[in-house]
């Protein structure tokens, strides 16, 4: 009897070990399908990529792209609100499966996370008072510029002004705070996505903030953790399909007024 019990116990243990091994080997894509839900990190404080509309609903180009992704996967969408600085930490700590948060593809970020093929573009600019003549980084000498910490705008502004004397960069923890600082007059200049400038001006038309010059244009990708080949392959295929059928371009045009570049 004891021998039989020992054999049964051993078989159960082996079965559990096999299940655990299968679960640990199961990739992120399988986990999403088994959960029947995808957790997508979106910055809802970065219009028009992510925002809260007049009906207090989440809206924006990244929200709609995430909705399309969930629909094509056949799973529920759960939006995980993030800010620029915590996009990567939320992904790496598995608070989100993927990031769709105006997440530009850069060499620095590729050291830490993987990206899908580009599904949109981001142009980062410097904005300031319309009456001021600012044509490039050199004209920012002696100026104070607001920017969201850890964003592509922060990286490009830091790189572009490193040899220019008298530049003061004030870093805020999220886009909403950065935008408010400029619209309320705490700073006159802002480094941000081009789409942010109209929103800042709308908040306070008297400030008359306009795009002064473009720092750089970046393709946007869906961020995912490294070593998730099945998920990356799915996302690359999803982007390719929805670029070909025009759905991603339709979403982009709805919020930016122009279609995606043909060579994206």
Automatic annotation (TrEMBL):
Q: Where is the Solute-binding protein family 3/N-terminal domain?
A: 37-259
SMART domains noted in UniProt? PBPb
Which interval of the chain is the signal sequence? 1-25
Q: Which domain of life is it from?
A: Bacteria
Task: Give yes or no: UniProt keyword RNA-binding.
Answer: no
Keywords for the protein's UniProt record, in alphabetical order: Signal
Q: InterPro entries attached here?
A: Solute-binding_3/MltF_N (IPR001638)
This protein is called Transporter substrate-binding domain-containing protein
Q: Which organism is it from?
A: Noviherbaspirillum galbum
């Amino acid at each position: 009897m004891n021998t039989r019990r020992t054999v049964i116990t051993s078989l159960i243990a082996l079965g559990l070990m096999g299940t655990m091994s299968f679960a640990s080997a199961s990739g992120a894509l399988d986990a999403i399908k088994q959960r029947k839900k995808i957790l997508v990190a979106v910055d809802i404080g970065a219009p028009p990529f992510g925002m809260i509309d007049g009906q207090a609903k989440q809206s924006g180009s990244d929200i709609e792209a995430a909705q399309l992704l969930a629909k094509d996967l056949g799973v529920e969408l759960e939006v995980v609100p993030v800010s620029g600085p915590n996009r990567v930490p939320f992904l790496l700590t598995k608070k989100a499966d993927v990031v769709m948060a105006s997440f530009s593809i850069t060499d620095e970020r590729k050291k830490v996370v993987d990206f899908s093929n580009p599904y949109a573009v981001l142009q980062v600019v410097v904005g300031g008072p319309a009456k001021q003549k600012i044509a490039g980084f050199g004209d920012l000498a002696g100026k104070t510029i607001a920017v969201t910490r850890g964003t592509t705008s922060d990286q490009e502004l830091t790189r572009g002004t490193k040899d220019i004397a008298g530049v003061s960069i004030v870093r805020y923890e999220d886009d909403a705070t950065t935008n408010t600082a400029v619209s309320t007059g705490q700073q006159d200049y802002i480094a941000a996505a081009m789409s942010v400038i109209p929103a800042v001006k709308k908040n306070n038309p008297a400030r008359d903030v306009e795009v002064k010059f473009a720092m750089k244009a970046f393709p946007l990708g869906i961020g995912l953790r490294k070593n998730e080949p099945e998920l990356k392959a799915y996302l690359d295929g999803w982007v390719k399909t929805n670029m070909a059928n025009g759905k991603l371009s339709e979403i982009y045009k709805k919020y930016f007024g122009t279609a995606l570049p043909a060579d994206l």
